[in-house]
Amino acid sequence: MLLIDCPSCGPRDENEFHYGGQAGIACPTGDMTDERWAEYVFMRDNPKGWFHERWFHVHGCRTWFTVERHTVTHEIRKPR
Amino acid sequence: MRFTFDGRPMTGEPGDTLAAALLRNGVRVVGRSVDLGRPRGIFAAGPEEPNALVRVGADPILAATTVELHDGLEARSLRGKGRVDLDAVDERRCDKGYLHCDVLVVGGGPAGLAATLAAGRSGARVILVDDQPRLGGDLLNSRLLLDGAPALDWVAGLDLPARVLTRTTAAGYYDHNYVLAVERRARGERLWHIRARRVVLATGAHERSVAFPGNDRPGVMLAASARAYANRYGVRAGRRAVVFACADSGYEAAEDLTAAGVDVLAVVDPRPSGLPADVEVLAGQVVTGTTADAEGVLTGVRAGARHFDADLLAVAGGWNPAVHLFSQSGGRTRFDEELAAFVPGTSAQAERPAGACRGLYGTREAIADGYAAGAEAAGRTVPGLRVPECGERPLRRPAALWLVERTPGSEPAFADLHRDVTVADLARATGTGMRSVEHVKRYTTAGTGADQGKTSGAVVVGVMSALLGAAPGQVGTTTFRPPYTPVSFATLAGRDRGALSDPVRTTALHDAHVARGAVFEDVGQWKRPWYFPRDGEDMEAAVRRECHAARTAVAAMDASTLGKIDIRGADAGEFLDRVYTNMYSTLAVGACRYGVMCGADGMVFDDGTTTRLADDHYLTTTTTGNAAAVFDWLEEWRQTEWPDLDVSFTSVTDHWATVAVAGPRARQVIAAVAPEAVELAFMRYASVPVLGVPGRVFRISFSGELAYEVNVPWRYGRALWEAVLELGAVPYGTETMHVLRAEKGFAIVGQETDGTVTPQDLGMGWIVSARKPDFVGKRSHARPDTARQDRKRLVGLLADDPAALVEEGAQLTAAGVAPMLGHVTSSYHSAALGRTFSLAMARNVSPGDRLTAVSGNVAHPVTVVEPVFYDPDNTRRDGDPLVESPAPYAGECRSESPAAAFAARFEAASTPRAHLREVPFEPMWEVRGTDPGAGLRLGPDWWLVTGDVPPRPGWVDVSGQRTVLELAGPAAHDVLITGCPIDLDPSVFPGHAQTLLAKTSVILERVSPETYRIYVRSSFARYLAEWLIDALEAL
Ligand SMILES: [Zn+2]
To answer: Where, by residue number, does the polypeptide cross the bilayer (chain A) (predicted)?
Structure first.
């Protein structure tokens, strides 16, 4: 059970949150190739190590926010 | 204390474990081994026991060394494997609880006690857990004097500034210092979820054995365990003993056994020199074998040429720090050559091992280390902590002895007693080329028993190192995984069993449905009426009658479960344009429009109607199952992609009770209950009195008939339902709703769609705006795969046999041969058509095509048709004209709060310690944007205002959305921690929070030091009421 620091509520147990996948993936706009669009829809990084990811405090303040989590140790820190 | 073992009556003493009591009664053979069926006796005195496994009541397998004796206990022996007694009655009431602390100390031995003292005195919030009934750890088993007095006097004199949980085993150490601990209580275990800032692991050490021939005989026991039985329980594990001392602790055992009246014949010490002792010491020698009687029970011990007649062989093979929790936390162990054991190496979490857990076996060293660990964990050193004096000798280096070679014809030498794994088995594994201890473990099953190899793990590694000619540190250990000791499923389930296993959501109309004998269907967590059988009708007959009423007269359904989202803000229309495939910014005020929402991948995600209530105010409905997902989806796009849009969302699903009234004579009913809505045009909405209370009426149809969705606040829902039925509407359930919509060819998200279906696939290209620059999923509709022509599309099917019901899920083929062209998604009997019909998703087919629908061994010839079976020209939409205006409904519009039915049960379950009641009819509003200066802050720019205050423009009335339950009394906190994961300590709890209670979201507000208000979604009120009553009864 991870302890996730919600910017609004402080540290709470993981099961108060929904996972939101990789952070920083902007929805592309304007004309683009099928490949570029498919990359946005389907492709995400899967690093061994630090990972920027989004969480949603669904059972709390309903805030989306980004943290950095180490995918091996599960250490969590504020994004840099 | 009287107890039975395999039906034999026996007597034990208070404080005995079952193992101690069995020894007290002279029981040598406690069970047989799992594979070889060899007799086995008690080997240890704690949770590491590999042999003495028993069944007690509903517990299929327990170590007799961990079972506290009680009067009337009935235990049965096992052959190495648990056995479930299906007839056993389990009357335990297990539950769970959440605790938070600055410092968690695991283990109440010298180091743990010292750490607790040091941390607690520095002002930290400390929890100490220990698995024994009494604190003291190894001091309980010892005759040691501290400051000249019995060591337990020192323990008793400690004033521990901590929450102390005895009989509590820390079983799992998870991420971010989350520790699960099982507290054994007479009425059932409690699973503690403990979140600690820092953890001190004072888990002690386990003694290990040596793999010598015949080392599994009943009578062979760990030396420290034989000493524990003598000192702690006053039980002699044998009359004549030999001690095999690879470590100096063997000498202490020899002295204590002698003091207890055991005739100790010799100490066999493999090291070149022994210690001075009152008995014969065979230095530089090893135990080479054992002899036994006809039953296999130990009669003698061989050491080289010497043979001793003995019924007890006490083996001090050396010590293994109990690094289980350390390893579970992610810490890396290392092999310490000096100690000949794996010890904690690098920590991974905010944790520190102390005392014997890191190889400091001396009592004074352990206490000093505990003080240091406690101070370090608390971040502050307090003066005045003194290490008591004691007369322990310094410990010499133990012998790194793992196995004694067999001679031909000798007994097998066991590495793992529980799993019957011998040195020969390990040799076979390494002989096949295995080098990894993980491979050997899986090949031989060593370490996989209920004891998880606590006494055998180091022996296996040691034997492997000898077989492979590698150092133990190179062989390494297997991974330690939770739980440290077995945890029963009953403990894990706690109170989440039976009716409380998953939340059941109910509508305001639920009791009325129950009273009418409705048969319910689970839709997500909701209970929805499936059909309303009358006079012994079966489902088919009931549905036929309900459909007939809706098509020819008037019928009514509880539609309260549809998700309802109140959307406000200057950019609300723009926002909806971006998330729906069609246009909403152009929708007229007062008009409703059906819409489809896609994921970024262009696939249908949800559908529903959206109504414009005002220029900057919309109400969106979602499918029942997707309500939460859609609500979250809207928030995701607003916050993460379009933060500049002025729009906010409020769930009002539970605020409104909704009754769908459908059928050609629906107008007649509406004229009586909501006269001002009677002239409403198709796809229009009116905010009008309903039964004299403020309501909302939408003219929306999901059946093709004249239909209205009538909304009133939750508290009036049941009154509205009863009125509508009294006016002649026939109640119908979800099955009839499905038939009616399928006859019209309306797809259901999740039934026709499965996440791979676009609106175009459903034949709904008309709903996908070509004018809008963009909307979520638009670009995906142009992807080659999405745009290709041979995708599965929604079609209708008619079986040749009009009575044949093609099974949903049936595969469609041309002429009964591959390839599969699609599958059947919906299939019903239709009263209106007088036959069966189906909807399907199929590729490359057009009306008139002949297909075969195959399911199991049944194949039905079918013909493809257009997917609209009933009234394709929508001639029935406006129903029958009003014959004459009926009188307004004259019955009472009774108001009922969501937990009203629980009032008597709340009162009955309440005690002076904890009193539970509903606070009914509390006015509530959700407020966005500007701080109202009152109420509870729920999140950024989000408040809940309650009470009799005048609402301001823009506040969303949510008085029915949540039900307020009040729990008051000195035990209120104790009830809440059994289901609420956040820290409610006054020093940290801000007074209110949105969090979880049991398995539902709540707002928890402390209104006075012992009074809490719980705001729960009204549809979850019944579940939470049951949960709280159960919690009060368990107090
Ligand atoms: Zn939050």
So the answer is: none
According to the 3-state scheme, what is the secondary structure of B612-643? Answer: EEECCEEEEEECCCCHHHHHHHHHHHHHHCCC
State which residue of chain B sits closest to A1, comparing Cα positions. B175
A48 lies within 8 A of chain B by CB: no
Q: Does any domain span residue B567?
A: no
| B48 and B148 co-located in one domain | no
Q: Which CATH class is domain A3-24+31-77?
A: alpha beta
Chosen from B195, B639, B994, B1003 to mutate, greatest number of chain A CBs within 10 A = B994
Interchain contact, B176 vs A3, CB within 8 Å? yes
d(CA B336, CA A4): 36
Query: Domain tally for chain B?
Result: 4
CA distance A43 to chain B (A): 12
**Which residues have a Cβ under 8 Å from the Cβ of B564 and sit 6 or more positions away?**
B619, B620, B621, B622, B627, B651, B652, B653, B655, B656, B658
CATH number of the CATH domain containing B98: 3.50.50.60
d(CA B542, CA B535): 10
Q: Of B174, B176, B995, which is closest to A60 when you measure between CB atoms?
A: B995
* CB contacts, 8 Å: A33 with chain B: none
Distance between A71 CA and the closest CA of chain B, angstroms: 12
**B636 to A20: CB separation less than 8 angstroms, yes or no:** yes
Q: What is the pLDDT of residues B692-720, one digit of tens each?
A: 999 999 999 999 999 999 999 999 999 99
Transcribe B185-202 into DSSP letters.
Answer: -TT--EEEEEEEEEEEE-
Phi-psi region of B191 (alpha: psi -120 to 50; beta: other; left: phi over 0): beta
Q: Which residues of B touch A (CB under 8 A)?
A: 174-178, 193, 195, 330, 348, 600-601, 632, 635-636, 639-641, 774, 779-780, 782-784, 938-940, 942, 981-982, 993-996, 1001
pTM above 0.90, yes or no: yes
Nearest-angstrom CA–CA distance, B434 and B443 = 9
**Mutate which of B175, B634, B977, B987 to test chain A, going by most A C-beta atoms within 10 A?**
B175
Whether B330 and B200 share a structural domain: yes
Main-chain phi, psi angles of B637, to 5 degrees: -70, -40
Q: Are residues B157 and B79 in the same domain?
A: no
For residue B1002, the cross-strand partners are B995, B1016
The pLDDT tens digits of the residues spanning B637-653 come to 999 999 999 999 999 99
The answer as to whether B108 is a domain residue is yes
CB contact under 8 Å between B600 and A29, yes or no, is no
Q: Which of B335, B362, B378 delimits the end of a domain?
A: B378
Is there a single domain that holds both residue B35 and residue B127?
no
Are residues B110 and B30 part of one domain?
A: no
Structure tokens, B583: 């246009």
ipTM value, please give it. 0.98
Instruction: For residues B47 and B23, state if they share a domain.
Output: yes
- Whether B108 and B171 share a structural domain: yes
* Domain that residue B456 falls in: 402-475
Inform me whether the C-beta atom of residue A43 falls under 8 Å from chain B C-beta atoms.
no
The CA B775 to ligand 1 mean position distance, Å, reads: 29
Q: Cβ of A15 and B996 within 8 Å?
A: yes
Q: Hey, what amino acid is at B125?
A: R
Beta strands in chain A (DSSP E): 3-6, 10-13, 18-22, 50-56, 64-70, 76-77
pLDDT in tens, B740-772: 999 999 999 999 999 999 999 999 999 999 889
Q: Are the beta carbons of B578 and B595 closer than 8 angstroms?
A: no
Tell me the pLDDT tens digit for each residue of B113-152: 999 999 999 999 999 999 999 999 999 999 999 999 999 9
B762 inside domain: no
Q: Name the A residues in 54-73 with CB < 8 Å from any B CB.
A: 54, 56-64, 73
Could you report how far apart the first and last alpha carbons of chain B are, in Å?
28
Give chain A positions within 8 Å (CB) of B940: 8, 61, 63
